[in-house]
């Protein structure tokens, strides 16, 4: 096994939080680094899953528990959700999405990016500097893929699962998050109407922090093409790449800084 | 899948660091969360996203029409058309003049537009455009459709931006990247219209040429895309990449 | 002046839509005899015809400008064949149907009224769905349809046309109830 670590770092796929999380570490790191990340992800799943009726979020959402019963971690996440609600003018709203547990609270739109960003910090705490975590298509990047080579992130073509619509090159700290409706049964609810949104096929956000990249992707999806201007005005350190239903690509001008092709 | 999957971590100690410490939560926010969870109170609407209202056109007043009404209708129609045409022209040129310096812009990268305008872009580059220095990160990725239209091989390497023209979406500049004397990439950059998305209308944009979108010969490390279920993961490009990675790692282990 | 045709496409499209709505309104006010003191003043009918004809002329300019603007990639099939557009097919189809509806309504009345009165009226009523789909076409395809001016003025214009339609339907209902006893 040591030969593997010396040659290629560590690579692992974990099915957790209802999705596949690919962890691709290109450094020599102790196995504990990976173990800690996996334990963290399962902890997040237990705490925030809306599929687990006994989890804190389900109990709070269905009224079985009050805010006083919630841990600081849960309150912190919900507070962040509310900050994003204000920031996005209501386009990001975790309190309207019908959740599988029957409540109207589903913070998974934030929890996914937030937990992966924390997972990246855990890896960094173990000395990893070059790695990539892909959680169901939302990606946190650190360092390089190979010495001197950026990570190349393909953005999935909405109509063709095995094709990329664009390629983002990223080195250092970068997050790439995509919201889309091409997944069967997937839908993004417009909080202002309560109806699924329809204009766009996918929204990709590139920026420093996956917590926000993920949330902005959801918000811009709800806002539609207008969201490009919102993002450019309010968060110029984040870039957006939109593919519309009729396969046109729109992006903020700073997306060109990240785009390889 | 991953070779690690067979050896799930066993360590029982809670090694992972606790989540980042949270700041003290505002009591008002706590109350708000409690209300929202209870599903009782309607939200306080936050400041709506800034929407500017263009000056509404003066309402047309139609009084009791006289016998010359038909002539008046003709005159009014022509005047309105001329006025609107002039207004659109004015709005576009204003946008074009302010647009290039503004950062809060919107870019349109359209394969179809790129294909049809690549030749004109090539001709404008010779006279009016300036080479920029952004070619550093451009590798030799061949964007198929654009490459086929580039018949001139006397182009110097670099990135060129053509003069502003206007298409269906508003003012547009075509940017091409030349590598090895061949156009390897061509995108239409939409200049912003005064910070508003006047020029964007997602309902009416033409189909992107899928060749340009999909002709990615670059090796990809990972894929961003909504992959919410393990079923869709199995069918995804990411799972193929993961498989290739773990296979490579195993090959490295055995050799 | 590369962009002139593009601006012309937009402005003539807007003007043609407004003219269609206006013609519709005038037509219904005329047939409902809601035309002021004199019941059916000739100039009123003249204006209705004039508005309809103008709408057709502006539609033709709209189509020609769209066709000749090379940036738009609108070919002859897109202009004349419903469903032939390569993109935004539905929106273009509405436009094509509106054009045909309008042309039929105009040329069955001018230069001379074709068919017998009953048939003519049925054919002429094509202008109502034609105007409706023209509005849908404008909303779906128009680059200015997301502007506040459009969002405010379009419903107002549509309302101005729907009101006479209501008046006409009302007067029809009234005359029906009055005529029925005399008929048999």
SSE layout and pairing:
The complex is a heterotrimer of chains A (261), B (255) and C (184).
Chain A: H1 2-8, E1 10-16, E2 19-25, H2 31-48, H3 56-61, H4 72-87, H5 108-125, E3 131-135, E4 138-142, E5 151-156, E6 164-170, E7 174-180, E8 200-207, H6 210-223, H7 226-234, E9 239-244, E10 249-252
Chain B: H1 27-38, H2 69-99, E1 106-109, H3 111-128, E2 131-132, H4 144-149, E3 158-161, E4 165-167, E5 170-179, E6 182-190, H5 210-214, E7 222-224, H6 230-234, H7 237-254
Antiparallel strand pairs in B: 2-3, 3-5, 4-5, 5-6
Chain C: H1 4-31, H2 42-68, H3 76-80, H4 89-107, H5 117-124, H6 127-141, H7 148-183
Helix pairs in contact in C: 1-2, 1-6, 1-7, 2-4, 4-6
Let me know the average pLDDT of chain C: 83
Which percent bin holds the helix content of chain C?
Answer: over 70%
Mean pLDDT of chain A: 84
Indicate the proportion of strand residues of chain A: 15-25%
Tell how many strands the DSSP assignment of chain A holds: 10
Major β-sheet of chain A, in short? 8 strands, antiparallel
Strand content of chain C: under 5%
How many β-strands of chain C, per DSSP? 0
What is the radius of gyration of chain A computed over CA atoms, rounded to a whole number of angstroms? 18 Å
Helix count from the secondary structure assignment of chain A: 7
Uncertain segments of chain C are none
What is the overall silhouette of chain A?
globular
Summarize the largest interface: chains and residue counts: A-B, 115 and 101 residues
